[in-house]
Structures are given as structure tokens and as C-alpha cells.
């Protein structure tokens, strides 16, 4: 079986660096290029931190796909580029695996339609950590019995979107089994605007942004005389790489867009 030919977009970011290492170290994968915002025409090995990884750097993703044989794009850029890169990938017969968040429901529906028209697989994952996926699944199970719930997500202070894609996805999964209901006192008043967090069908989502954090989330359920807390912590970005590897392997076997790794984890 031929190796999966992969391009990584966003190689100099924290996640991108780990993805380059993972792809380069996986026997069945082949890193053929990276897409970066600068360093056009250079070899990745010439950039600090990538010694020995001799693949070309492109600033134009279209040119990259035209010049090289590519199976999968791993996109770990910023929300402003995620959708654009997916559209270019579809146009060139490349299957995208995207870790960028910030997609609306309309975006996902439109991109799914593009994927199905091209008969290409695509995966958008708000979180690639297997433990985080299990946390979301367990939270959905718990919500059937403890419908009063709040979500606290904590990330590094360079994260652009709030709440996180993981928090929103968790709330969506809970909403599938929980009737919409307002929580807290019916006459409660925020003395400081935003104190109660974002409101998702009555659930409250709170975002923390601090240096030193990576990616953390706890889902707190309250019931009569009891509470239940389900928490996941990514203390290093290597925690995301098994999920990225699984997504690459899975995207080759589907011909639609899948939003969330929970749909490919049994």
C-alpha cells in the first residue's frame, strides 16, 4: 500500500509543529510539503526547529496542489483561512483534515455539500484529543439524567475564538438529549455584564484565557444533593496527535464531511 501523501498548513504554529513531527514519524505517512504564510521556495529544514525535514515550503496552497500529488491536507491555521483552504482542497481532489474552529452551521452545511459533490471525505475536529472526545460523549450520557449543566473551558491566551469549538460541540451534543431550559434563579441579575457566561439553550458556557494553559474543559452537572464533574486536560499538544493520525486514516474512507471525531470513534 502506498504511503498517504500529506501537506500540513500552518507548520510553525504549536499544533502545526507537532503535526509535522507526527507525519514525519509515521511509517505509512509521507510529508510532501507545508503551506506557510512566508518562506516561499525554502526547504522546511532551513527553518528553525525542523532540522532534517527536507520538504518544500509554499505560500500559495493552490500552487502546492497543482505541483504535487497530495492525498490529505492537515490544516491547523487560523479561522480566517480554514474554509478557504478546504474549498481549494476540494477543487483539487484533496481530502482536508481541519483543526481550525469558528465554522458556523451554515459553513459546515455548505462545505459538506461540496465534499459530497466531489465524493471526497473531510473532517473538521474542534478537538483532536481522544480524551476530550470521551469527555463530550460522557457528558451527553450524563445529561439524560442531570439536565442542569454548565461548561467551563480554559485555553491559552493566544486563542482567538471564545467559547472554544469543543465547548460549543459539547453543548450541542448535550442539547440532543436535553430539553432547552433556563438555569439559575428566574430573577437573577448580572451585576457585571457577562458574569453568567454565554447562553446555549439555557446552558451556560464560561471561557478562561490565561498564559500557561493549553486546553482544558470541565462540564459540571447539578442535581438534588449532588454534583458531577467531568473534566479533561490537555497538558501538552502531543495529546492531539493520535486524534490527528486517526482523522487522516479515517478521511480516506469516507465521502462526506464529518464534524467532530466522536463520529469516527466507536
From TrEMBL:
Pathway: Amino-acid biosynthesis; L-lysine biosynthesis via DAP pathway; (S)-tetrahydrodipicolinate from L-aspartate: step 4/4
Positions bound to NADP(+): 38
Residues that, per the record, bind (S)-2,3,4,5-tetrahydrodipicolinate: 156, 165-166
PROSITE patterns per UniProt: DAPB (PS01298)
Residues holding NAD(+): 10-15, 99-101, 125-128
Catalytic residues as annotated in Swiss-Prot or TrEMBL: 155, 159
Name by which UniProt lists this protein: 4-hydroxy-tetrahydrodipicolinate reductase
Protein family: Belongs to the DapB family.
PANTHER family found in the cross-reference section: 4-HYDROXY-TETRAHYDRODIPICOLINATE REDUCTASE 1, CHLOROPLASTIC-RELATED, DIHYDRODIPICOLINATE REDUCTASE
Keywords annotated in UniProt: Amino-acid biosynthesis, Cytoplasm, Diaminopimelate biosynthesis, Lysine biosynthesis, NAD, NADP, Oxidoreductase
Every Dihydrodipicolinate reductase C-terminal domain range: 131-264
Compartments reported by the entry: Cytoplasm
A single GO molecular function term of this UniProt record: 4-hydroxy-tetrahydrodipicolinate reductase
Principal subcellular localization: cytoplasm
Sequence ranges assigned to domain Dihydrodipicolinate reductase N-terminal in this UniProt record: 4-128
Coiled coil location: none
Function description: Catalyzes the conversion of 4-hydroxy-tetrahydrodipicolinate (HTPA) to tetrahydrodipicolinate.
Amino acid at each position: 500500500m502506498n504511503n498517504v501523501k500529506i501537506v500540513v498548513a500552518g507548520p510553525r504554529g504549536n499544533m502545526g509543529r507537532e503535526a509535522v513531527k507526527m507525519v514525519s514519524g509515521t511509517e505509512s505517512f509521507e510529508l510532501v510539503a507545508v503551506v506557510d504564510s512566508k518562506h516561499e521556495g525554502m526547504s522546511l529544514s532551513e527553518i528553525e526547529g525542523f532540522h532534517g525535514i527536507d520538504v518544500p515550503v509554499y505560500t500559495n496552497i493552490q500552487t502546492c496542489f497543482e505541483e504535487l500529488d497530495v492525498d490529505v491536507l492537515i490544516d491547523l491555521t487560523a479561522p480566517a483561512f480554514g474554509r478557504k483552504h478546504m474549498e481549494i482542497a476540494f477543487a483539487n481532489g484533496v481530502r482536508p483534515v481541519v483543526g481550525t474552529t469558528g465554522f458556523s452551521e451554515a459553513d459546515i452545511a455548505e462545505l459538506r455539500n461540496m465534499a459530497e459533490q466531489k465524493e471526497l471525505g473531510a473532517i473538521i475536529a474542534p478537538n483532536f484529543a481522544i480524551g476530550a472526545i470521551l469527555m463530550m460523549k460522557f457528558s451527553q450520557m450524563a445529561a439524560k439524567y442531570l439536565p442542569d449543566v454548565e461548561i467551563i473551558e480554559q485555553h491559552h491566551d493566544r486563542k482567538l475564538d471564545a467559547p472554544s469549538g469543543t465547548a460549543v460541540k459539547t453543548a450541542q451534543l448535550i442539547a440532543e438529549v436535553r430539553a432547552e431550559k433556563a438555569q439559575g434563579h428566574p430573577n437573577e441579575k448580572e451585576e457585571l455584564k457577562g458574569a453568567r457566561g454565554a447562553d446555549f439553550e439555557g446552558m451556560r458556557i464560561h471561557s478562561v484565557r490565561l498564559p500557561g494553559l493549553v486546553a482544558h474543559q470541565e462540564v459540571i452537572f447539578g442535581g438534588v444533593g449532588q454534583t458531577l464533574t467531568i473534566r479533561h486536560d490537555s497538558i501538552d499538544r502531543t495529546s492531539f496527535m493520535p486524534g490527528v493520525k486517526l482523522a487522516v486514516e479515517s478521511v480516506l474512507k469516507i465521502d462526506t464531511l464529518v464534524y467532530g471525531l466522536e463520529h469516527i470513534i466507536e
